[in-house]
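Long-time lurker. I teach an intro course on protein structure, and each term I like to show students one example going from raw sequence to a predicted 3D structure in token notation. This year I'd like something fresh instead of my usual example. Would anyone be willing to generate the tokens for the chain below so I can use it in lecture? Attribution to the forum is fine with me.
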Amino acid sequence: MGRLDERVAVVTGGGRGIGRAIALELARDGAVVVVSSRTREQLEAVVGELEGVGSAGLAVVADALDREEAKAPVREAFGVFGRVDVLVNNVGGGAPLRGSQDPFTHDDDVFEANLALNLTSAYWTTREALPLMREAGFGRIINIGSGFSKRSGGALAYTCAKHGLIGLTRALAHDTAGYGITVNCLCPGWTNTALVDWEGMGRALGISAAEAHALRAGENLQDRVLEPEELGPMASLLAAPESAGITGQVISVDGGYKV
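-- Reply from a regular --
Happy to contribute to a lecture. Here you go:
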């Protein structure tokens, strides 16, 4: 018996990296997991892994920058499985729109696209899930933040959006506490995922990729870059029934990033 048996979880951005790792951890604890992203091949590979650990899985191709598509994973989860108990808002990163991100010459459309990807999309997906959770008297919402959710230093729009996720988390936790719903923000630090371009970072800093990796590793107390799988156990705890007393919290799994 797993602590998430008979629960249905939706993980956005679930085709790779942290989303994939969290989806697999939830499945190992018994959840049925619906994963979404823009890339069907990645999603189908993850569904195969979910089935390999004994869970049912469902792939939903969706563009988080489109309001209706951002809601689709929740709608399809409910349509197929009849419930949505857990929502992990993991989608994020850099929006595909290109343009200046220098604060003195910042492209307005690029700024808004990055806000939509890293903040507004989480609202859209959550908005679809909340009535279902209220009706069931149970819900777990986990927003995936960043080391830049609490600090400066990232790209302007990304940092603003990730700070905004903390506000969204706390406001939702306040407004939904009476309905058996908890809302928390889980923040990774530097983590080995495809979103981190060590070569590009090195070029921007005038150093090698290996030196860039070592530089970022040195920003936490453990002097290392974490693996996506290290986020899974905390996400699973926050998704579980026994975490009912944890809400409105910002929790880091980051090796002690800039403590």
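Some talking points for your students: The mean pLDDT is 95. The chain has one domain: 8-191+226-253.
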